[in-house]
């Protein structure tokens, strides 16, 4: 199987489990370049596991994950880690900033780890902090910031190295309602203005409303009228012998 040219990121037939309990059951999904996709569903349905597999943080028990034509599921660990460092950004429900570093150093960390000079890394990180309305905090330590400010720094860190894809796993979960809307708007506006693909996971329907498209998981399976058939189900060949279903649907 090779990834379809219209999909930057594609997964087929993903299965994964935790301690014997299924977390993903034959999940297929495709994400187009520049798209904002929301993975939604109730708590415990497999959203975080799917983002983990798509981002290379987890290796599925079965199935395939392709990024820009590269088989992420078969890459050796060092190559997968380099790809995650250079091409992906990650935002979790907690910012996980390093307390001993300043705000700008936290935001610049991916650049510094990839070998960028300190001056360039600082300039780029501070530009993103300014875009996210926390530039005035650049010299502060994370402990001096409010939760919403720390989450903005985490977003700056995820965007500063110009990744191809940003994965955001419940990025607004710990925030108050007003802060949630503002952080989401900031993330999506920044991503659209720079052509960055975003894969969000959230059980909040209001988060799904900012995305171009949403896919739904229930008990580890993709559901809904746009869900492709199981990979082991018979499919009717389309033109030129190709299967009729599309994983991007």
Write the layout of secondary structure elements.
Elements: E1 7-18, E2 21-32, E3 36-40, H1 47-54, E4 62-67, E5 70-71, H2 77-87, E6 88-91, H3 103-113, H4 118-131, H5 147-159, E7 165-169, H6 177-193, E8 197-202, H7 205-208, E9 213-218, E10 221-223
Parallel strand pairs: 3-8, 3-9, 6-7, 7-8
Antiparallel strand pairs: 1-2, 1-4, 4-5, 9-10
Helix pairs in contact: 3-4, 3-5, 5-6
Strands, count:
10
Q: How many H/I helical runs?
A: 7
Distance between the termini: 18 Å
Gyration radius, in Å: 18 Å
Mean pLDDT: 86
User: Looking across the biggest beta sheet, what order are the strands in?
Assistant: 6-7-8-3-9-10
Please mark out the parts with pLDDT under 50 across 5 or more consecutive residues, or reply none: 233-249
What general outline do the C-alpha atoms trace?
A: globular
Briefly note the structural class of the backbone. alpha/beta
Q: Element order, helices and strands?
A: EEEHEEHEHHHEHEHEE
Taken as a percent bin, the fraction of beta residues is 15-25%
Helix content: 25-40%
* Main sheet makeup: 6 strands, mixed
Structural write-up:
This protein is of the alpha/beta class and 249 residues long. It contains seven helices and ten strands. α3 packs parallel to α5 (147-159) and α5 (147-159) runs parallel beside α6.
């Amino acid at each position: 199987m090779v990834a379809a040219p219209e999909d930057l990121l594609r997964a087929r037939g993903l299965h994964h489990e935790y301690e014997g309990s299924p977390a993903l059951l034959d999940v297929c999904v495709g994400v187009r370049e520049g798209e904002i996709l929301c993975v939604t569903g109730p708590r415990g349905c497999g959203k975080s596991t799917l983002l983990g597999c798509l981002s290379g943080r987890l290796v599925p028990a079965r199935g395939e994950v392709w990024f820009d034509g590269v088989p992420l599921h078969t890459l050796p660990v060092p190559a997968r880690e380099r790809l995650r460092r250079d091409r992906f950004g990650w935002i979790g429900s907690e910012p996980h900033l390093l307390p001993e570093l300043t705000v700008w150093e936290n935001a610049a960390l991916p650049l510094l780890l990839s070998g960028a000079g300190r001056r360039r890394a600082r300039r780029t990180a501070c530009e993103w902090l300014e875009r996210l309305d926390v530039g005035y905090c650049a010299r502060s330590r994370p402990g001096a910031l409010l939760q919403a400010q720390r989450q903005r720094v985490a977003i700056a860190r995820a965007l500063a190295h110009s990744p191809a894809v940003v994965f955001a796993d419940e990025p607004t979960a710990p925030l108050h309602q007003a802060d949630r809307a503002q952080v989401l708007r900031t993330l999506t506006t920044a991503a659209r203005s720079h052509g960055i693909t975003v894969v969000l996971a959230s059980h909040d329907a209001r988060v799904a409303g900012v995305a171009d498209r949403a896919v739904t998981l229930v008990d580890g399976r993709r559901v809904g009228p746009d869900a492709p058939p199981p990979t082991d189900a018979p499919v009717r060949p389309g033109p030129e012998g190709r299967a009729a279903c599309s994983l991007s649907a």
